[in-house]
Each structure stands twice: as C-alpha cells, then as structure tokens.
Queue: 2 jobs
Job 1
Amino acid sequence: MTGGGESVDRRPAGEPAAKAGLIGGAYRPLADADVKRIHETVLDVLDRIGVADPIPVLRERALARGCRIDRGNRLCYPPALVEDAIAGARRDIVCYARDPRHDLDMSGTHVNFYGGGEAVTMFDFRTRAYRPSTLTDTYDLARLSDRLEHIHGYSRLTIPTEIADQRVADINIAYASVAGTVKHVSLSFAQAEHIGPVQAMLDLIAGGEGHFRKRPFCHAGGCCIISPLRYARDNSEVCIAATRLGAPVWVIAAPQAGTTGPAALAGTLVLCVAEALAAWLLVELVAPGHPVIVGAWPFVADLRTGSFAGGGGETAVLNAAAVQMINSYGLASSVGAGMSDSKLIDNQAGYEKGLSVALAALAGCNGVSEASGMLASLMGCSFEAMVIDNDMLGCVQRAVRGIEVTDETLSFETIRAAVEGDGHFLRQPQTRRLMRSEYVYPHVADRSARLQWEQEGSPGILEHAHARAAEILSTHYPACIEPSVDRKIRERFSIELAAERMRPSPPR
C-alpha cells in the first residue's frame, strides 16, 4: 500500500520518484474517537465562548445566518451553522502557476511544500553571522526556489528591512516574488488597500486588465485571528479583500501552547481548530463558496522561558493532528513546519525540520509552509538552508509516496533472473528502468566514499550547499516578466529593486 492507500503505481513512465501533490494521510496521530471529541469541543467553543471583535461585514452576515453577539461583543456560531457550512464547503482548490507544470492540487490529502516566514535577518555563510534582510534577498530567494524541484511554491521568507513604508513594501515584495519564479506565489499584505495596486501590477504581467483572474498565479490572505479567540481587524479586512484576486485565500490561526493557548496539547489543538474554523467562516460567510486554505498552525512555547519553540516533538505532533482535523472536514489544510530554533545549519536544525515536516506531510497536509530555509525560530533565513532543505523535502516526499506493490514491483522474475545469472541486480533491465522513477537522489548530501571525501578536503553539507546556492544565484535569472511590461510596471509603481540587479553581472 502507498502512503495514500493506493496499491497500484499509476504514474506515467519516466516520472520522477518525488513530485508535488503526492497523496499523504497515512499518519493519523488521533484516533477516530479523539477526532470526534475534539470536534464536539470545537463546536462548543465557537458557540458558547465565541470570537471577539468581528469586523462589521462579518457581523452583519453572521447575524443574518442565525449567529448571535454576546455581551462581550463576541460572535457566537451555532453548531448547526458550522456543520452546514462545512458540508457545503469548496473542495476543488488549485493554486495555479504561470508554468502549468507547477500547478498545485490543494484538495484531498495531496501534499505540497513551499517556503514562508517573515524573517528579518539572513545568515551569512562567510561570516557565520546574521545581517538584516533586504528586498534583494526576497528576489534571490524566489530565484533559488525556482530551481529547487522539491519546493513547489514561493512565499516571502524575509522582510525587506530597508523599506519602512508598508504599502511600498507590499508592492515591492510582490514584484520581487513574481519576478523571481514561475511557480505559484503566496502574498501577504499589511492593509487591505494595498491589494488593489498589486492586482493592477499582476494584471499587467498577465496580459491586461482582468487577465490575472483568469488564471491567478498568486494568492493572498492573512493571520486574521489573535489568540485566544479574537478577530484581528486589519488582517480580517485583508482576507476579504483578497477574494477580489480570484485565487484561494489563506487564513491562519496560531495559538502558542502554554502562552496564548492551553498548556495541554489537546486543549491547544481545540483552540487552534476553533480559531481556524472561525477564520474560514469569516471568508465563507462574506464570500460564500470562495476557495480557502485553512491554516491551523499550533505553536508551542518553551515553558521554562515562555519563548517560542518552533522545533521539537510537541510542535511536530500538534501540526500533524491539526492537519488531520482540517482534513476530516474536507477543507484545504496548511501548517507551519520546518521552524527550527537552531541559529546554525546543524544537527539540531536537521532533526527539528525533518521531524516536523515529515509528520505534517505524512498526515496529508495540502500546504506545508515554513518548510525551507528558516532558522532561529523564524527570525532568520539562509540560502544554504534552503538548498539543504530541498534535499530533505525530496526524502520526505519519497516517504509520503510509499511503496507500490504490483506484479512487476514484487519482482519475482527479476529475482529469478539474478539468482540464475550473475548473482546481482545491477545489470537487470528493471534496475535501469527504475533508477529515476523509484529513487530520489540528493544534490548536496554526501554519499561518497570516506577516502574520496578526505581527498576532497573533508567538506561538510554546508559547504556543498553554499556552492550549489552560489551556482544557481550566479546563473539563474529567469525572465519572468517581459521587458516591455517591466518598464510599464516601473513607470507606474515605486519599484526599488534595481533592474541591473536582475541580470548577471558582467565579467570583471
């Protein structure tokens, strides 16, 4: 059986061993009875505690549907309304890319990986120190993602700290992102009114006014819940305005166990799912039937200090359980995994990232965010870490895919031929045929013999990753925006990424 329960390999001949959209869902940390109890408690929370500070349009639509406002200005959702809304939810969700080969199926338990985060520093390989992140980093990270095959979409990983004006920053981040990759891009906005100019820019890139909506290659949303159980006005407005793009809207709720959520992991899971459903209901009630990617992102605090803890077994199992709950509703799921607390690209970063990403993927998460490049509890990012994480994601995808059991793969005749022949399988036709479709090969993980490694100077994975990142960033300048269109964009908008920075430097 595969990770998704299928017993036949239906992939076309020659298809790679790992790709976007593989079927997950084999890992289920919650028993069916647990899912039922959590769901019932979630309904109680939404009905009997409610969510404070709904924006006016949500308040109006919710009251018209039978919700109520309690004395604390808390919007309370009747269980029947929640369950009826879930039953009629939009489930055929696709995130389009400019290159259709990179379209992302966000339905069922299809698994996809992308970056994400809002780090304010970048790790410098040469100094082994952090420096403030810039708009150029946003562009370079997009270019790097464009060439890393196991990173399926791009979301800003860093903040351009040199741009103080939020409107200018949102426009420039969107520009740098879509200029650097043809993969699907996830956008963030500080204010709802920032979406309009970005949509106009995306229309120019897509071919004219209204063209972007025909095949939207970006989507947007916001963290519209402040834990515990309060709507955030600005981000709520962003989520509603983002529906105008015609693309799925992402919503995120992220209580932190022990601080903004209960110390009991089950309690934080209840709170997180309740908040995520409240975020989804915000869009569903205001724009019925609009596709939404539901981010139940349970975080964890180190209770010795109260500080954020992105790594660890608690975060990993909470993520997987949150995915299981959102998937049980048939909604598109998102979690943040790969959020290492390590400041270095070291063993700690490796085990924290690998554990949390693998469990989220095996649980069947449609969009595993924070999955590449992030360090220092989401405060730092690294080109080298992205390259290493790409290898890790390929391994995780291969685990998600599982093992196909067919008459051919059971290999009886192949075993007989090897036994009766030269005693090994290297020359068997099956070996050559399956070399690419059955196996994933790392780019920077070292599988060489020890003597060869010593002769090459005993390099570590960080050195290999730096060399690969440098090679990509020095040569890969994708022409994602037509030059004539780029000129129009620069005439109309305050683009702070110099055009000269978007092509290779002349030889010295």
Note: The longest strand covers residues 184-188.
Job 2
Amino acid sequence: MRRITGSLLSLAALLLAACANSPAVTPVLPSVMPTPPAELAAFYEQPARWHNCGDADCMTVKVPVDYSRPHSATTELNVTRVSTGDGDLGSLFVNPGGPGGSAFDYAKAAEAVVSADVLKHFDLIGVDPRGVAHSSPIECLTDEQKDTLVATDSSPDTPQEVTQLEKVSSILRDGCAASGSPLYGRMGTADAARDLDIVRAVVGDAAFNFLGKSYGTYLGQAYAELFPTHVGRMVLDGVLPADSDLVETTRVQAIALEHELHNFATTCSESDACPWQGSADEIVTQMQAWFVSLDSNPLKGTDGRELTQALAQSAVVSYLYFPPGDYESLIPALENAVTKAQPDQLLALWDQRSDRDAQGHYSTNALESFYAVTCIDRPYAGTIDSTATLAREWSAEAPTFGPSLAWGMLACSNWPAAAGSSPPITRVTAAGSAPILVVGTTHDPATPYAWAQQVAGQLENAGLLTWDAHQHTAYSRGSACIDEQVDAYLLSGKLPVQQTC
C-alpha cells in the first residue's frame, strides 16, 4: 500500500515446517451463481464487454449512484483483468488500500501483488472504487490548493495558525461540495462493497475471492458483512477495524507511528549518514526539535518550494511503512535537509508517495478521495476546542505525530454530505461466510497488530496469521513463510494451521 492510511492533512518467528510448492487446488465455494435482488437485476445481468488495454483486459461496469434509488442515476467503474494462467479458480479481486489507492493499477502490477502459483489459477481483477482514480474520480482541489493544504501547519500553537488550519480544511470540504460530482456524499465503503458484488456477477464468478490490504481490509469486511454467503477466499492483510471511530482509529495510529519512529531512530543511529547522534530516544528528541524549528524557519528548495514542519513530518511518516527500503531512502534525505539545509531530496520523497510530479501536478485524486471516503465512513463532529483538547492529550502518548493527526481530523468536521451514502458498516461478523484469513504484522505502523487480533476474533469464521516484523502488511513483503501460507489458503480454501512466522 502506497497511500498513507489515516494520515489526515499533514501526513499519511516460527518457520513453516513443511509446505508444498503447489498446494492442492480445490473448487471455490459457493459454486452456484447467487440470485441478484430484483431491483438491481439490470445491473447484475449487464454483459461483460472486455477489451484489450495493454497486457490486460479492461471494461466499465455500471452501478447505481444511490442504492435506495437504483434507477435514478448511474456511474461507471473501471475494471481490469490480468490473466496469465488458466483461471480455473475464477477471479481474485485485489485492493491496495487508501482509501484512494487504485485497484485498477494495482492489478496491472500482478506479478508484484501475488505469487506465480496464484496467477496460474486466478485471474487478477482490479476495480477502482466509485469516485477513485479511473472510476469517475471526484475532483475537489486544484494542484495549488493541494500544495497549500499539505504544507499548512498541522500542529497549530497560535490562534492565527488555528484559523489558517480551519480555513484550508474548509477549502477541502467546500471544494468537494462544489465539485458537481453525483458521487459526492456517496463514496462510502458500504456502497463500494455493493458495487463489488455487481462486478463479481458481471465477471461471471459465483464466489467473491479477495485480497485486501490496509483500507482494503475494511472494504473486504464490508463486503463479507453484506454478502457473507458470496464470500469465497478472502485475505485481509493489515487490518482496519469497522467498529473504531475516527478519533480512536487516528489515536491508535499515532501511537503506532510513534513506536515506528523509535525503530527508525535505532537504525539511523547505526548509520554514518544519520544527521543526529546518540541513542534512539535522543535521536527522536532531536528530530522533534528539528520539526519544531521548521515551524518558524522552513527550508527553501532550489525551486523556491518550502519544506514546512507539516511537509517534513508527512515525508517522514510516509517513509516509515516499509523499513527495508524506506529507511535507506529517508536517512540520506534527512541528512541533506538537516545538515546542509537542502530539502529537495526529502520533498521528492514526499512527492513520490503523494503522486506529485516535479511540476507540481498531482496525477491522481487520492487526496480528495481519501477524505470523501473517510469522512463518510467515520464521521467526526469535533469542534476546534475539542480537537485542541485531543491534540494536547495525544501529545503524551505520541508527542511527534499525535497533535498533527488530531488536528487533521478537523477536515472531516461537518462534512456536509455524510448522510448521502448507505449507512457505514460498523460491526462485522460475516455470519455464514467461508473461512476468512486475517493477516497481521506485530509492528505495523499504520494498522496495528491489535486490530488484526480484534477483527479475527469478531469474524464468525476466520483464522489469524501473524508476522513478527516491522512492516505495513505482510503478504509479498519479503517473508517466504507468510507468502507460502497465504498462497496455500488461496489455492485450497483451508486456513493455515501455523499461526506465526
């Protein structure tokens, strides 16, 4: 997952004893095509019109804008299919997270998403959710407004800074309201899950097989709760729980990111390129002081763009997700910014994670769609005063990122179209579903391991597979043990006996 889940405004081993290279393949259940609701039959029964789109097949699928009035207006979803084997197990839908990440593009990178064994037996399907990326994307802000939003002080300590933060938050809310998109207010995950069931039927699958990462796990849970008997093989990797509101979700993420910052500081302390000296705790303290210094003295890049406190924190957060590669990129970028006052490299890292090119153009609508989904799924009614209180409270457990993440929730306050979507899915048991595999990483900085334990315990028919590592999500992240067990489940439908890698 590339997008920073939950980062609002400023951000965002036991080895397998024996495992066959190609686990036995058994049929996916259910095997009988579910009967669609009568009022939605026209959508479920629309023909699949695939066309070649370069190393993949593509099509569009019509879905209702409003499921309470299915024939009043429609929107189109962009769908891609990658077929490299015989597809004897049907389709495997994938979603990389976000919200705002493109499943369409993710599926096209099939060989990096799943193993060769899985690709032999499944067609990989990517569906951009409504309003996201290639599926009638909602556009709320200009590139310049996005730059302003992400650079604005996200931990205000003066009345003037609070006023500025509220101003840019309202620009986002008002921009989405003025977008004219019929999807505004109808981009909640419950509607996106209903859309996926229509695509399942159009593709021709009786069962819905799914690999969801990060936010994609919430999309998978919503589907399983709405259509439990349609579930085939479902992997939820890096779990976001359904029953946690925005305040609790963001608080727990802030604490997890704080822990990961200390892990980064340990690695940094062992590098000659680290711009700070001392123990991990001492390095974190120095980093915090450097962030604060940027509040009044931002660094200017060669193109005149400023590295503000908010941008510096966001860049660091965005490179805490995947330590094997992220740390080695982040340390030299920080060295240039801290010791040489040259922020270009750190700004470039942020740009890579936020789809911004060197000319300042954002190539996706990930920022807008993140809010358009999040603010509907997890409404926030906080005021400036109550948000300020949370920011002070969170600074005790998460002094580096807690205040920024607390203030970031202000963008969802009074989100004007929150009532337009189907009601959010806030509790998931998926009673009657086939076995679901939940995967959690013990030191996940974005979706803490406790969430995987929680969701695995709430689902009626689920197993938990654990990776003891510092990493966001586990499958295809470098653990042969995890990959073998997830593959075995996808190919056999049987939950793994081993529980820890």
Note: The radius of gyration is 22 Å.
